Amino acid sequence: MDRRKFIKAMGASAAALVAPLPTQAARNKPSLRYLRPPGAHKEAEFLSKCIRCGQCGETCPNRCIKFFGFENGIASIGTPYITPREKACILCMKCGDVCPTGAIPKIEREANEILEKVDMGLAVVDEELCLSFQGKTCGVCYRACPLQDVAIKVGMLEQPHVKESCIGCGLCERSCIQMPQAIRIQPARQEA
Amino acid sequence: MMEQPRQPFFLWRHLNKLRLVTLSLVFIVLIIIPIFHVYQTFVAAHAYDLLAPSEKRLYDVAEFVTSPFTNEPAEDLDAVKGNTWSGKFWGLQLSDPLAVVSQIAASLSFYWPFILTALIPVILTILLGRFFCGWLCPAILIYELNSNFSAWLKLASLKLPNFQFDRRLKYGVLATGLILTSLVGSLLIATIYPPAIIGRELYFVIALDGFGIGVVIFIGTLLFDLLVARRGFCRYVCPGGALYSLLGRYRFLRIRRIAESCNDCAKCNAVCEFGLDPMKDDFGQECNNCTACMAICPTEAMTFTLRPTDYPAQGPGHLGRQRKRENNFEIREAAE
């Protein structure tokens, strides 16, 4: 390799290093769509109150609460999150009972309390993927919902219609038989 | 007439063994809690038939251990949860004072139900000093094994560097950590504080997919101890140790040297994990009452005392060579 080629290659690699990497550009990738435990405060307040003791995860009877490493930035290392497609929240409200810090407030396990105070997200139906909208009667999401007819209703051919009062526990997304899932939780924290 | 040297109570020199038992117990409990949690989830799911063979073994062992005490493990085993960073023991919630201080720094607000969980630890620290570091911290067990390991390496004539820093460095780390925590608005201290890391990571590896990044940070501190300064993290860096030292500055329970029975052998200085100078009566605010110096003292010259400040320097031990030389000199002078 002659000198000119070598210098060119060096210049190119230096430019590649300085330029933003594609992985850095896509920080809000869709695979990072996550929910905070039920009843948790909005993101900024949650991060400033959570001490990362892990008791919410240790008490979750469904073991759906996982903990962040580096993947969501340094500020949220060790904080709890839920990936609804893997394991969704069953709204037992034990994490709020056990949280000592007030990051997840205590909420009674009672429908009105939960409807009023829990806001993890909102389910969104992709009608192109949903079997019921394609003429095959399904209705699994409706049957998985813990707040049937309040958070989700079904129409003709069991077509799901999500209501405003959906709290985003994710059980519908967990249960969807389509791959990829036709109903997803849009996390509330990303709007805030 | 020379006054009779006071003997320490005979049990004091065995406290160090009790301390190692306590540390091991804390560590074992931190392992048992996640195992019991996994067992609870299996019970709650009524899923015994669906478990893998290894999970069935876990279920059987946990059932065997807990069945004499509880008929409803899914609810009753919730009694003990958490770790040394913050935990619940039969309804009594206890938290590390550092957790409370850093939460106040991060949120710039006072959430009293949480602040009060640190009340008992704070009172105990004010009375007993930095005892958490020596008696409860789950990381200390590994750090002490690590420092034994470096002693073995020394025996194998592999001498590792052992730099001395200023012990006040950790107060700087505490202040910087709190300021950063406050600026970011997120508890960054919790990600580098070893007791919090150990409790969390043990849960991750037993109940979830595997170790998180805390293990990398913890191994970093182990390497720092091994390759840079012996017990360097606790001595120079640990923000929790800094907070406990400040709280325990005027602690009531102290170790003191009985100068009458001290022979200046300096074994106490050699064994002190925090690099203090017990032989010169210099314990200071960083002594954690670990009683290692009591256990090793060949002449039983270390005992407890109840007073809020250290004894003033008592000079060389009465059985030591230096004191004898001075005495002889005085006698000779008197004779002349």
Strand order of the largest sheet of chain B: 1-2-3
Strands ordered across the widest β-sheet of chain A: 1-2
Q: Largest sheet of chain A, if any?
A: 2 strands, antiparallel
Give the termini separation of chain A.
Answer: 55 Å
CATH topology name of the domain at 252-321 in chain B, in short, is Alpha-Beta Plaits
User: Would you count the extended β strands of chain A for me?
Assistant: 6
How much of the polypeptide of chain B forms β-strand, as a percent range? 5-15%
- Rg of chain B computed from alpha carbons, rounded to a whole number of angstroms: 24 Å
Q: Cα distance, first to last residue of chain B?
A: 22 Å
> Which two chains have the most extensive interface, and how many residues on each?
A-B, 32 and 46 residues
Please identify the oligomeric state: heterodimer
The CATH architecture of the domain at 252-321 in chain B comes to 2-Layer Sandwich
Key structural traits:
heterodimer; A: 192 residues; two-stranded antiparallel sheet; 6 strands; B: 336 residues; mainly alpha; Alpha-Beta Plaits; three-stranded antiparallel β-sheet; 55% helix
Describe the structure.
The complex is a heterodimer of chains A (192) and B (336). With 192 residues, chain A is an alpha+beta fold. Chain A has one domain (28-187). In chain A, 28% of the residues lie in helices and 11% in strands. Chain A contains eight helices and six strands. Chain A has a two-stranded antiparallel sheet with strand order 1-2. In chain A, strand 4 (152-154) and strand 5 form a beta hairpin. The longest helix of chain A is centred in the N-terminal third of the chain and has 16 residues, at 3-18. The N and C termini of chain A lie far apart (55 Å). In chain B, strands 1-2-3 form a three-stranded antiparallel sheet. In chain B, strands 4-5 form a two-stranded antiparallel ribbon. Helix content of chain B is 55%, strand content 6%. Chain B has helices at 15-45, 53-66, 73-76, 97-107, 112-115, 119-128, 131-135, 138-155, 169-184, 189-192, 194-207, 214-227, 232-237, 239-247, 267-271, 292-296, 321-335, and strands at residues 80-82, 86-89, 92-95, 253-257, 302-306. In chain B, helix 4 packs across helix 9 and helix 9 (169-184) crosses helix 14 (239-247). By secondary structure, chain B is mainly alpha-helical. Chain B has a domain at 252-321: Alpha-Beta Plaits (2-Layer Sandwich). The chains are: A alpha+beta (192), B mainly alpha (336). Chain A binds chain B through residues 44-45, 47-55, 57-63, 66-67, 69-70, 74-78, 94, 98, 100-102, and chain B through 33-34, 37-38, 40-41, 44, 74, 78, 81-83, 85-88, 93, 95, 99, 102-103, 106-108, 111, 113-114, 117, 184-188, 190-191, 196, 199-200, 203-204, 207-209, 212-214.
